[in-house]
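Table S7 (text form). Paired inputs.
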Amino acid sequence: MAFWSYIIASIIEYPIIKKRFKCLKSFFIPRLFSAVIVPWVIFLIWYLVPAIYGKFHIESFELVWAIVVSILSGIIGVIFEREIQEKEQSTIFIIVVIILLLISAFLYVRFTYKLPWIDMFVDPLKL
């Protein structure tokens, strides 16, 4: 969800703030990079609580933690964006971002319809 929502938010944001940017690339490449990275940041931050405390036993705590993780991940994405957009992006960086973006888009769509065999994605109710 973070991947697609980050891309959609960036597309919506562009007409509003495009005057601040010299070219399309200086706006979109940092945001596409963040769209690729933010789902992994969510993964890293989310699993801190289960790693330290184990399973969530209170649903409201899990909900609050999900909101906190979403906000923190968005802030981290913006930090990445601001650092990258202030510098000239090399051609190789742009190519890598586009390749990772395409791979991410493919995997997120594919895994929506067919889960991978990795145990982490097993429905716990089916165990």
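Next pair, protein 2 of 2.
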Amino acid sequence: MGGNPSSYEFMESDEMARIEKSIEINAPPEEIWKMLYWNRIPEWLDIIKNAEYTSKERDTVGATAHVVGEAAGIKVEWDVEITEYVKNKSAKWRTTGGNLTAIGESNLKVTEKGTQLIFIIDSELPYSILGKIIDKLVVNRESEKGIEKGLKKLKALLEK
């Protein structure tokens, strides 16, 4: 095949698309943590349209939620389960159903000026090879922009 070798590798790769963003917020970890609960995320992350817990517990391993999002005009809906949890410090989750396959995590680290929030998501939408290219080129780019914008919005909300 002709063309750019990295494009060829990209087409053949089954790797998930990764978004990793961080921001420093002049607020204690406890204040930021409250905004990382699934039902609070739509307040600051516009690409998440709705999120509701489907389990009684929300701050423990095994907690579940149903999430609806949209990026680049593509609606996605998924169920999520918390797989690791240390309150006010870190949480990991994975999808358990829906039209998005993803794993993600949020980590908080105390800094001299406040707290650094590190947000990571590895995701894949269920498409053909062509769809995966579009996912990487369009949906992932829009999601990345949306997360950057959301983190700035969260910072503004918490630093009022």
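The chain has a mean pLDDT of 85.
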